[in-house]
Amino acid sequence: MRVAAVILVALGSIMAATSSSQDATPLEIQFCPAAQVRTFPLESARGAQSLVLQNIAVINHGAAPAEVADVTVELLRDSNALDTRRIAGADLASATAAGPTIQKSGTLKLIAFQFCGSALIPDGIELAGTTLAPNQAFLIAQQPFAFKGKRDALRVRLHARIDSREVEVAATIPIQSAFGKTQFRFPLRGVWFAGVGPTMHTGHRWALPEEFGYDIVRLGHGGLSYRGTGARFADYFAYGAEVLAAGEGVVAAAVNDQQEDTAALRRPGDTAEAYGARVQEIQAALLAKGVKGVAGNYVVIDHGNGEFSLYAHLQPGSVSVRVGERLAAGVRLGKLGSSGNSTEPHLHFQVCDRVDPLMCAGIPVQFQNAALPFADYPRPLQSGDVVVAN
Predict the structure, then answer these.
(1) Which CATH entry fits the domain spanning 27-176: 3.30.70, 3.40.1350, 3.40.50, 2.60.40?
(2) Which DSSP string corresponds to 352-373?
(3) Which of 68, 129, 323, 381 could bridge across to 160 with cysteines, CB 3.0–4.6 Å?
(4) pTM of the full predicted structure?
(5) SS3 277
(6) Helix or strand or coil: residue 103?
(7) Are 113 and 9 in contact (CB under 8 A)?
(8) What is the rounded distance in angstroms from the CA atom of residue 282 to the CA atom of residue 132?
(9) Which residues pair with 308 in a beta bridge?
(10) What is the fold, at CATH topology level, of the domain defined by 190-389?
(11) pLDDT, tens digit, 9 for 90 and up, residues 83-106
(12) What distance in Å separates the CA atoms of residue 200 and residue 49, rounded to the nearest whole number?
């Protein structure tokens, strides 16, 4: 099948600084997202979990340069470090090297949602390497972890030299391994394929808003998602399917006037390189338009508890609910389409902690009515699963 387009996304900042002596340090550690980092089951039967630390930034607010020697990330249980990753020397230089390029190219602002807007890297702060002049910072992004059992906090520690003085700075953020509080149902009926989901080999997991979201398509004869050449939206088996509210709540946002464009469909004879280049150009233009450019026609439902579900890429003119309307689970929202940042007709579904589909942090969910015919035991929906929903 053709992989549905993914979007990037993120949000937040937290800091807690301590020194190895009683002297105050001007170095600050910040996280994005800020409130917590979330896990997703890697292998449920064996209690294996996965975690992606999306972003950490170290900022020098002082008047003297700071030379950072190492950064250590620890996963804790009851304040004990069970998993430790030390980044130093050439590895630290490599981990921080992309930051200046991202900032100078404008990418930091283009995909600001991935870096918590200006909360992670405030305006006026310049990204640099491991030696930080005043008002400089470095960025370390997308650190993955896998482990068995429970972890309840993540701690970052660093050692640096400032004015010939050795300092240690540390910051801690909670680890949350629970699913969202809302009882969700799968937002489509019938047999579907979760082409993209929360596992690390697909793109969603590396983007903050959609970290635990899904791109859902329908497969047909030969395991393809389309008939014929797939040159028209109507060729796709998923196109026009009814999209349903996954849980009870109030409509917080609804867009219904965004057009679909076949330019992002893969054409017969396209090489992977040519197609990839065309899609990147299209996606850059859509990202510059903001939420409507990315999500196309969409609905956001507020379920309470700080949980908001998004249904994106709907057909133009098909959205049948209005802002402020209270809905029961299973109510029709619109028709599956290919508006916005979409490489083929599919439903993008995610749950995150704010109403803005981009400036939010993803929340993992379980679907109450999703049968997984190829799963050996009950477990959450993963990337690549076939789903049967009534």
Answers:
(1) 2.60.40
(2) ESSSSSSSS-B----BTTEE-T
(3) 68
(4) 0.91
(5) helix
(6) helix
(7) yes
(8) 36
(9) 302, 352
(10) Glucose Permease (Domain IIA) (2.70.70)
(11) 999 999 999 999 999 999 999 999
(12) 11
